[in-house]
Design brief:
The complex is a heteropentamer, with 1 copy of chain A (about 240 residues), 1 copy of chain B (about 280 residues), 1 copy of chain C (about 220 residues) and 2 copies of chain D (about 250 residues).
Chain A (H helix, E strand, L loop, with lengths): L19 H33 L6 H15 L3 H15 L8 H27 L2 H9 L4 H16 L1 H14 L11 H12 L2 H30 L14
Chain B lengths: L4 H8 L1 E6 L7 E4 L2 E3 L1 H17 L4 E6 L5 H6 L5 E7 L2 H4 L2 E3 L4 E10 L14 E5 L3 H13 L4 E5 L2 H9 L5 E5 H10 L6 E18 L3 H16 L2 H10 L2 E2 L4 E2 L6 H8 L6 H6 L1
Chain C lengths: L9 H38 L3 H15 L3 H16 L5 H27 L2 H9 L4 H31 L11 H11 L3 H33 L1
Helix pairs in contact in C: 1-2, 1-4, 1-6, 1-7, 2-4, 3-4, 4-6, 5-6, 6-8, 7-8
Classes of the chains: A mainly alpha (about 240), B alpha/beta (about 280), C mainly alpha (about 220), D alpha/beta (about 250).
Bound molecules: adenosine-5'-triphosphate (2 copies) and magnesium ion (MG) (2 copies).
The site of one magnesium ion has 4 residues of chain E, from α1.
């Protein structure tokens, strides 16, 4: 493909960012903001839903949790983002004034929450049944044995899939360009078009994505190391995007 | 790859024609059928090429997007793109353009009831444009130059941008006049929308082809000039802009602009920058 | 806001939606089969214990897994024509991209599947005199496939959803079909809503089947 | 008359259509050491788990120390905190150190202060001979050690009765002895115990009653140890068969 | 002079820095039944797996039936096909029916015809008393049945020697007997056997030699059964300690 032209990064795109390089960095900032906010939503909602699905003797909650998971994981993320951005405000007008950033965070967060809920449920159910019995047998209430026995181990066990989920959320944030968030992929497409230098732009953006993925991976590895229980060995999980 | 497109299409007996899915000048009816002012003009160019080659050249329609059209032309996927591509200096470094066949005027589309009548009314308003088009760049430059402060939202394509206007998320949609007219005409209440105010910029639209292939460019240009000269292009304009068109049989209703008339009077391939300097 | 689905008659569906649906399904099937084939090869490379096989496979898999699919799609669209020296259409490009991309994901699933086979099974195969190849094809891989079938199919459902991203290069998939129909009739809201419903019904039905299968497998084991 | 500690009355239980306990009746007095044996899948674990309502039952009633386990008004966590339970797979909390395993329920359930809980817990740990391991995690201990910690954990709650579900069957043979020794000690001190086990040596040494359950969850034998081992002719054929199998080698 | 079947000479093995076999020497003659015992983690499984090179060794040499196991030129699959092996967790192929489990290696490794393999396999299945289960899958059998199928699988290959790695320790107590019975039968017919087990009853009944390995992989005892059980004073203190533990209850 031959002749590179890295100078394009120093050209003036004409907007508020003086160079394409600075524009790209600000786009990276948007990617990070979208991803981290959505991750927060996903963790909170996903944990809640995941726990609901494992509660003993609460068929209502279990059904609600199952419905949540099925709804949000069986529609493509892109379509879900369109639903939040276009369809919801058309039916429910005040939603029109909600900034797209929030809508995207909710869309991405809920989409991912379904997957985290599923992992947490699997993690909880993969714990030996005896652990639940042991918690009950020493006199813990349901809330107490979740808090002190089940959840600490379940979260540790799902750290590997949570790591890939956190990396996924960064990658999936790329879909946000479809609704006017000025993140990396939108930058790549727009700047690639304006400068007619798509390869250089794609390369820069790809490198930033890889850096983001690696940083998240390192952070999660650190958490995993901190949370490691001496002497305890467990098998990991896999799958998904 | 070789830069002799004429030889290539003659040898293979087919040409890859770049078309668009949903622009005013080129769009799809589904089922692999592509129509529109520029698409039909492209078909006629190919007919002329067939005549010159002395054999039937079949058209392979290749839908492109604004993000991929230039690489596709460069890498040979598309031989001739007749969608709605602005001829500007940056692009001219990578591809070459046939003579201008349509001069686009960037305009403001707004709801009739919005009270916006020109660019100065956009202050403090939200303006929609489309990712991967040059109008965004124009708008950005204007914004900085004139200290006009408005919010910008970007649809992923024109229909999306129009939807932003329709749903009230944006107060105005700034884009090529033909696109604005087409989108408004297809909407449920076409009468709710109006194009207002001054022309923000003028953009020559032309068919795009590979760089450094003068013979091919000449063949394409000659065909276009013929179509202008014998009046068939004007008939085509009438068919696609003033008569009801498929699939919904509504009229775009956009009479030919002065700028377009001038371009036809003096066929040329000047880039957008030359228009602005005027 | 009044929704009006009236324009969705059979001819709109055949003209716009079905073509995209066929492509989405075709892409899913081809990418699943190709992805599993190459993914298994990659997994075997990674488990070979030979550095010169493991390292390139690891770089490929981890590289693919840290880039958004949209970017991978854009990349392949840009560079595949240069690599193979002739132009290809958006659809062909999407097929190559998805096979290459999914191979990375399927390889991780197959690797986990192979590793989930107890070491004792490997020993048992060796102990009755099987060669490495026989042990792999007769003992390990059949079990790995069986154990991982639900995960492989779940990945396939995700893959089906991900085909919606090919619109980035203008390939005509099911979502594109709905969008185009919506645009042409000025009814995008209804189209998106309908697209969501159709995706949901298809994916939910598939995941329901996977769950049934999972239960069946659990009984056999 | 001996004080009644556990009364299991006409208890039946089903998993879906499958009956796993069939009209079981057992009375255990204070100080009794009752060994429960029977073939795999006969419902031994299920029976012992019904005593502190870890498994619900569909028919019958269970009373522990005067409190109705099956009574909906009963505060189950409170009842369970008084019933010590030891599991086949130890079920220590793997993310907590040995000391934390011993104290957490004392603090959170009984409301003891951290200091008080620690004193009590370590006393029990000392008793099972593992004081040196108080700061380790379960995963760092051998199976036999983990099981002894599990016994100490149950004892720190000052239980009035102890339930054991095959406490030695997941252990390597050399570790079985160390756990049984602790249990023998407990029995000798007068702890009321219900023990599911195949260790007939233990039964011979300390049980005062042996119960045999057959597949389907029916209690076939409930008799004194002397009778069970000493009087084979009075036994049911199924029991003799079972005893033959497990005592053969 | 007895024919030599297995010669283990000066064998040492390390996992990383940890030594798990320490200069082991064992000679097994044709027809010998050698029981290997020792505490958990002492290297019993590792030792027995080195015999058919399932585990590589770093020092020493092993010869089976005159063929050097550690010789790089040896065709290991061929050698292994002549050495039957039975594992603690059975390791039947779960995706194959019982009959397929018995025939697959005969067909793919020995090159027998499907018919021939089936005849041979079913004969062995009959011998372990499971003819009725020939079309079932392993998951549908009890542990004891699975282990007997595993023995039949090994026997269908016409092995010249059989290796057993704790064949009964993953079984419910009532099933131990049925597996040991099959093994006793084999031993009585003169099969050369090397058996890792804690079943001292089995050792007493049929072993002609007992080997004791201590943690760290050192062979502490290698003597006749009579000596091992009948002459405690001649034993090492570690051995006595171990025997005490596992025979206590
Ligand atoms: N959660 C469950 N769902 C359905 N069936 C169950 C469940 N738990 C146990 N069972 C069945 O109930 C019966 C009794 O089980 P239980 O665990 O009480 O037997 P056990 O006598 O303790 O056997 P073991 O010696 O194997 O521990 C068995 O047939 C078992 O398969
Ligand atoms: N793959 C491995 N990597 C590292 N260490 C290992 C591995 N396999 C076994 N070991 C270690 O080697 C030692 C001997 O293991 P081995 O399984 O031979 O013991 P064993 O006597 O069979 O014990 P058990 O009675 O528990 O089966 C143990 O300390 C074990 O932890
Ligand atoms: Mg049990
Ligand atoms: Mg072992």
């Amino acid at each position: 493909m031959g002749n590179w032209d890295w100078q394009v990064y120093l050209q003036d795109p004409g907007g508020k960012d003086p160079t394409y390089l600075q524009w790209m960095l600000s786009a990276w900032g948007w990617t990070i903001s979208v991803a981290l906010s959505a991750l927060l939503v996903a963790l909170v909602v996903g944990s809640l839903v995941g726990i609901l699905r494992t509660l003993p003797n609460s068929p209502g909650w279990v059904r609600f949790g199952n419905a949540w998971v099925e709804l949000f994981r069986n529609i493509p993320l892109l379509v879900q983002i369109f639903l939040w951005y276009h369809v919801v405000p058309a039916i429910f007008t005040p939603a029109r004034d909600v900034p797209p950033f929030i809508l995207v965070v909710l869309a991405l967060g809920f989409f991912t929450s379904a997957r985290i809920a599923e992992q947490l449920r699997a993690g909880i159910q993969a714990l030996p049944r005896g652990q639940r019995y042991a918690g009950m047998a020493v006199g813990f209430t349901t809330w107490q044995y979740y808090r002190y026995v089940i959840l600490p181990m379940a979260y540790r066990m799902i750290l590997p899939p949570l790591t890939s989920e956190s990396m996924n959320i960064f990658k999936n944030s790329s879909v946000a360009f479809a609704v006017s968030i000025a993140e990396l992929t939108q930058f790549a497409m727009q700047a690639g078009e304006e400068t007619a230098r798509p390869i250089e732009m794609y390369l820069g953006v790809t490198v930033l994505y890889i850096i983001s993925a690696m940083v998240i991976n390192r952070i999660m590895a650190f958490i995993e190391k901190r949370a490691r229980v001496p002497g305890f060995v467990a098998a990991g999980g896999t799958g998904g995007h | 790859q070789s830069n002799d497109t004429l030889a290539k299409i003659k040898a293979s007996g087919s040409i890859s024609l770049g078309v668009r899915d949903s622009s005013a000048l080129s769009y799809t009816l589904g089922n692999g059928k592509y129509v529109g002012f520029h698409t039909e003009m492209g078909e006629r160019i190919v007919a002329d090429l067939s005549k010159a080659a002395g054999k039937e050249i079949k058209i392979q329609y290749t839908p492109v997007t604004s993000q991929n059209r230039i690489p596709l032309v460069q890498n040979g996927t598309v031989d001739l793109e007749c969608g709605s591509t602005t001829n500007n200096a940056t692009r001219a470094k990578d591809v070459s353009f046939a003579v201008t066949t349509y001069v686009e005027e960037v305009r403001i589309l707004t709801k009739a009831s919005s009270g916006i009548n020109g660019i100065s009314d956009l202050k403090g308003k939200t303006v929609a444009t489309t990712t991967g088009t040059t109008s965004v760049q124009t708008l950005r430059r204007n914004k900085r130059a004139e200290g006009l402060d408005f919010k910008e939202v970007m649809g992923k394509d024109h229909a999306d941008s129009f939807l932003l206007l329709e749903s009230g998320r944006a107060d105005a949609f700034v884009m090529d006049g033909s696109i604005l007219a087409a989108n408004a005409s297809k909407s449920r209440n076409a009468a709710d929308y109006k194009m207002v105010g001054e022309v923000l910029s003028v953009e020559p639209i032309a068919c795009m082809l590979r760089k450094d292939d003068p013979a091919f460019k000449k063949a394409v240009d000659d065909s276009i000039k013929r179509q202008i000269a014998d009046g068939s292009l004007a008939k085509l304009y009438d068919k696609w802009f003033l008569q009801p068109i498929p699939p919904t049989n509504t009229k775009i209703g956009l009479p030919m602009s002065e700028a377009t008339k001038q371009a036809w009077a003096n066929p040329n391939d000047k880039p957008m920058e030359d228009y602005a300097a005027k | 806001m009044n929704l009006d689905f009236g324009f969705y008659n059979w001819s709109v569906i055949t003209d716009f939606v079905l073509k995209g649906f066929y492509f989405s399904v075709f892409l899913t099937v081809v990418a699943t089969l190709g992805g599993i084939f190459f993914g298994t090869l990659l997994a075997l490379m990674r488990l070979s214990g030979k550095k010169w096989l493991d390292t390139p496979a690891a770089i490929y898999v981890n590289g693919m897994r840290s880039i958004p699919l949209v970017m991978v799609i854009l990349w392949f669209f840009l560079i595949v024509p240069f690599l193979i020296g002739r132009p290809i259409g958006a659809e062909m490009s999407a097929i190559i991209t998805f096979i290459a991309f999914e191979a990375a994901y399927f390889s991780e699933i197959m690797r986990a599947g192979i590793q989930s086979i107890p070491r004792g099974q490997v020993f048992a195969g060796m102990a009755v005199g099987m060669s490495y190849r026989q042990n792999m094809t007769l003992v390990i891989l059949p079990q790995a496939f069986r154990n991982m079938l639900p995960v492989l199919l779940t990945q396939t459902i995700i893959l089906f959803q991900d085909t919606s991203l090919v619109y980035a290069i203008g390939a005509y998939d099911m979502l594109k079909g709905f969008e185009t129909a919506g645009k042409n009739f000025g009814r995008p809201i209804e189209s998106y809503l309908l697209a969501a419903v159709v995706y949901f019904v298809l994916c939910y039905a598939l995941s329901w089947l996977v769950k049934r299968l999972h239960k069946k497998i659990a009984i056999i084991r | 008359m001996a004080e009644q500690m556990i009364q299991i009355k006409d208890v039946s239980k089903w998993y879906g259509p499958v009956q796993v306990l069939n009209n079981c009746n057992v009375n255990i007095n204070k100080g009794d050491v009752v060994v429960v044996c029977g073939p795999s899948g006969s419902g031994k674990s299920t029976l012992i788990k019904t005593v502190n309502a870890l498994e619900p039952i569909q028919k019958g009633s269970i009373v522990v120390n005067g409190i109705g386990v099956t009574d909906p008004k009963t505060d189950l966590p409170k009842l369970r905190s008084k019933v010590g339970m030891v599991f086949q797979h130890f079920e220590l909390f793997p993310h907590l150190s040995v000391t934390e395993n011993l104290t957490i329920a004392q603090i959170k359930v009984l409301g003891r202060s951290a200091d008080e809980a620690k004193t009590r817990g370590l006393k029990m740990l000392d008793r099972v001979g593992l004081m040196a391991h108080k700061d380790k995690f379960p995963g760092q201990l051998s199976g036999g050690q983990q099981q002894r910690v599990a016994i100490a954990r149950a004892l720190s709650m000052d239980p009035i009765v102890m339930l054991f579900d095959e406490p030695t069957s997941a252990l390597d043979p050399e570790m079985v002895g160390e756990v049984l020794d602790v249990m023998v000690g407990l029995a000798k001190e007068g702890m009321t115990m219900m023990v599911v086990t195949h260790e007939m040596g233990f039964a011979r040494k300390v049980a005062n009653r042996v119960i045999f359950i057959d597949v389907g969850g029916r209690i076939l034998e409930d008799c004194s140890k002397e009778d069970f081992f000493g009087n084979p002719d009075a036994r049911q054929p199924r029991t003799k068969d079972f005893l033959n199998k497990i005592l053969q080698h």
